[in-house]
Amino acid sequence: MKPIIGITTFESEQKGFHTVNSYYINSIFDAGGIPINIPIIYDEEDYDYYLNLVDGILFTGGLDISPLSYDENPLREVNDISAIRDKYEFGLFIKAYERKLPILGICRGHQLANIALGGSLYQDIGVQIPNTLGHSPIGISKDELYHSIDIKKDSKLYSIFETERIFVNSNHHQAIKKLGNNLSISAFSEDKIIEAIEATDERFLIGVQFHPECLAKRYSQFLNLFKAFILAAKSK
């Protein structure tokens, strides 16, 4: 049977629906899984009902996570947050982590995993880290490769891509600062921004700062990340 993968969504108040980019859904289908969208959950008792349905969970990209979640007040550059989404995704992550469900975090999802496990973020790379390269280009297609990352050879990520260097897209102004508990760094950009993390134990927990779902159609190597995720969910 194909594993069922839960995908986190966000609520669009202006348009009145829960939504997620179709790139995530298509990547799960293409990798051999069955995606189901998980709406914003307001009642904490309902987390388990959704987690009982899925074999793995994908935490998607989107809004900044409130710096209050790692005990900081926001810089001026943080101006698009949702306490409702933060609460929902942190609650869902902790429950999924406790169950050792396979987890894939993309961009915001990568940062969320780090914060949930005790880490923190640079609220704005350009303001807080001197001499960084580009990470949030304007007007470039989501399926364009933008900069390189270096992958550690002893990482799970290396076993997926089978190379120490790849080129990725980029769409973020924040990045991991303090690493969370029970996590290791598996990839850096040239300017030492953390581009990927993973669990230090045998569970499948991988976070990437780039957007492989937008690249998977054009560059098949990025679908391998989703295939590895689906395989872990199938083996759960």
Automatic annotation (TrEMBL):
GO terms for cellular component: cytosol. It comes from the Bacteria. Coiled coil: none annotated. GO terms for molecular function: hydrolase activity, acting on carbon-nitrogen (but not peptide) bonds, in linear amides; transferase activity. Keywords: Glutamine amidotransferase, Transferase. PANTHER family: GLUTAMINE AMIDOTRANSFERASE PB2B2.05-RELATED. This is Putative glutamine amidotransferase. It comes from Tissierella praeacuta DSM 18095.
